[in-house]
Amino acid sequence: MYYQGLINKYRKYLPVTDSTPVITLNEGNTPLIKADNLAKKIGLESNLYLKFEGSNPTGSFKDRGMTMAVTKAKEAGAGAIICASTGNTSASAAAYGAKAGIKTFVLIPDGYIALGKLSQAMMYGAEIIAIQGNFDRALECVREISEKYPVTLVNSVNPFRIEGQKTGAFEICDALGKAPEYHFIPVGNAGNITAYWKGYREYFKEGIIKTLPKMMGYEAEGSAAIVRGERIMNPETFATAIRIGNPASWTQAEAARDESKGKIGCVTDEKIAEAYKMLASTEGILCEPASAASVAGLIQANKEGLVEAGTDIVCILTGNGLKDPDNAIKYSNADVKKTSSELDDVLRAMGI
Ligand SMILES: *Cc1c(COP(=O)(O)O)cnc(C)c1O
């Protein structure tokens, strides 16, 4: 049957009725890719799967939450939506806002958003406000604005975002016929780990899966508020999508960790960069730097002996690497050889 987005696919598990005006770009239904080359390279004795969320319509998992949040905003008759964003939320909100015919305001930290994400928000026609402050400050601003003015907040503190995002867990279980034993995921504002845990628990309660995964969340070391147990005032990492020092879903992330007997750890920028390059060169998958934190976390956890052999492991690759061409070029170390257009010169450049 023609796929019509995750609300139509999973409507039974979502807060919609037959009269809800579904705003969809046919998000979801993303590939779960078996990654044998990478598993071998990192010495893993388990089945490794990568959930490539970069193949969503705007290139990140944010579309899963945004189809729900904007659908519910439309149903409630909202005239405008607003979000704070490290980039992907703004791209997604702007796209779904355009589709719904709702005005979209986005607040971004000036200078810390990848070029592709900014270009998306511009093309989709959002009202873009770049503040001299980080994501955490931008989120404080939009929370206050949405309380005082008639504009709907579509950050992941909006519960409909979590509802949409939990469908990622449904898709993984539908594809594997069971839950994985381990679920590795980057942690920024911590909405996504919250959503996946909710999804797994709902499928468990329905009896569709018999076991639950250990939730393994990874922050960037320079922004590791949950790991350190305190708000980071000046979060740093080149993985800008997780450059967040005061995660909004902090307590829910800790609950996911504790209830699943999992872990929330952190990985250095160096290890994130290594995983980012390895994914591209061994599996042909270009994700964005923040996404690679899940794989960097797996490599670290495996070294620490936290990963049991013979299991199924899923790493969430949250966004598409094409959004951040500057980092791709910077970290690839590729050497582009320039020559004349003479065949002899081209052959020489090829090393023949
Ligand atoms: C938003 C985002 C994250 C972080 O997700 P949270 O729900 O904020 O923890 C990670 N990677 C990418 C690419 C993102 O866009």
What is the structure about, briefly put?
With 352 residues, the chain is an alpha/beta fold. Helices cover 43% and strands 14% of the residues. Helix 8 (167-176) packs across helix 9 (191-205), helix 9 crosses helix 11 and helix 12 (269-283) packs across helix 13.
Q: Write down how many β-strands occur, each being a DSSP E stretch of 2 or more residues.
A: 10
User: Strands across the major sheet, in which order?
Assistant: 1-2-10-7-8-9
**Helix/strand order:** HEHEHEHEHEHEHHEHEHHEHHEHH
Q: What does the overall shape look like?
A: globular
Unreliable spans are none
Number of helices: 15
- Indicate the percent of residues in helices: 40-55%
How would you characterize the largest beta sheet?
A: 6 strands, mixed
Rg measurement, Å: 20 Å
Structural class: alpha/beta
Bound molecules: pyridoxal-5'-phosphate
Distance between the termini: 51 Å
- Strand percent estimate: 5-15%
Oligomer: single chain
Report the mean per-residue pLDDT as an integer. 97
